Amino acid sequence: MSKVEYMSRKRVPPTPILDDLESFGNPFKRMDFNTQPFFNNQKPVVGSQIDYEYALKFLYSYEGSKATFNAYRRELERLLQWCWRIEERSILLMKREDIEEYIKFCINPPLSWIGTKSTSRFLNVEGERVPNKEWRPFLVTVGKDKFRKGVAPDRKDFILSQAAIKGIFTALSSFYDFLTQEMLLDANPIKLIRQKSKYIVKSQKVPDVRRISDLQWEYVIEAAEQLADDDPDSHERTLFAIYCLFSMYLRISELVADTNSIPYMSDFKRDHTRNWWFHVTGKGNKYRKITVCDEMLSALKRYRRFRGLSSLPAADEKEYLIPKLKGKGPIKDTKHIRNLVQLVFDNAYELMMKDTLEVDAAELKTATVHWLRHTGISRDVVYRPREHVRDDAGHASMATTDKYIESDERERHASGKSKTIKEVF
């Protein structure tokens, strides 16, 4: 392939290949894996049908975990795009050196492959799934505060984070393990890369845990309570969600319904010792039960009284945890919860500005919903046994929980700010 031809291929925006689970169905029951539609009028790459078949089969094995499915689909989509459209070869022909070239490509993708807004891969048009021309394999964004100020994302500012690079290695290694187990390959090319450190920078610094300060939390909960008092029909639900996210360290996905689980009021359960627990299926389709503290139990009672229910749920109760305000059924879109929490953050910001806390208010502008989980864990790990916090948070290892210890540098700085140097103790 000439350099001119290679560069011209990079300038053409790719069209999506991998749709969602509902659209491609069960690949183990399919007989046809036609890839011609992905190549327009060109001849499909030799072996692309096998690539497509086993990519779908691999992804289908993660139907029970939406987050993992989405992450692995993103990485397989990018790999297929590069192999088919740039290199014109099957993913089965990838060697160690090819993977290294692919990683370099992901770190510095062509501008035509970078989008500035999140879009669906496919659209429903007159009953058919058609590729979305606005979709791109890579995405550049701006921070929430900049976005509010009208700052638009620039493709030239795209940076592949260290976490994203690690995600590539994790997803592709798992995929090539799958291909090896299916006897399509003799070895996993990802595992043959001995110097991953060329791409993944190791840092001795523990990454900062993104959380809000104790002062900011006081204003957040005050703002949520004000909303609930002023407009209970709309915001008693908001206040309850805030309590769940903070007190029980819930991920936003654990508050909404999906194909694998629907959160019910009866997920709050009392054991034989009269202690209350919240049972949830979370990240990675893993089940856990979470300690329900007394204040969380009080918040539950308040919310249930507002909804005209008994103070505490029965074991077989089928009331949705977070129902829709209009229509029937549970909330299924995390965006809805994000909007509610953002309203609370916005109101807390206004309260802080009135109290002339401009710096703290400005910092709150950058906060996201997930910071509530981080904040709850960071506060609790100070005085609760670490293994208890680990189990409630659903961390796979103690190392993850340990990242939250002394995560708030404000308190750390305050303890050392007044120490003396000249005086002798």
Structural write-up:
This protein has 425 residues and is mainly α. It has two domains: 3-198, no CATH class; 214-413, Intergrase catalytic core (hpI Integrase, Chain A), CATH 1.10.443.10. It is 45% helix and 6% strand. It is built from 16 helices and seven strands. The chain has helices at 3-11, 21-24, 48-60, 66-87, 96-107, 144-148, 162-181, 214-230, 232-247, 294-306, 334-354, 358-364, 370-380, 386-393, 398-402, 409-417, and strands at residues 114-115, 122-125, 128-131, 138-139, 268-270, 276-281, 287-291. The longest helix is centred in the first third of the chain and has 22 residues, at 66-87. The radius of gyration is 25 Å and the shape is globular. The mean pLDDT is 87.
Strand order, main sheet: write it out: 5-6-7
| Low confidence ranges | none
CATH superfamily of the largest domain: Intergrase catalytic core
Mean pLDDT: 87
Quickly count the domains. 2
Structural topology:
Elements: H1 3-11, H2 21-24, H3 48-60, H4 66-87, H5 96-107, E1 114-115, E2 122-125, E3 128-131, E4 138-139, H6 144-148, H7 162-181, H8 214-230, H9 232-247, E5 268-270, E6 276-281, E7 287-291, H10 294-306, H11 334-354, H12 358-364, H13 370-380, H14 386-393, H15 398-402, H16 409-417
Helix pairs in contact: 3-4, 4-7, 8-9, 8-11, 9-10, 9-11, 9-13, 11-12
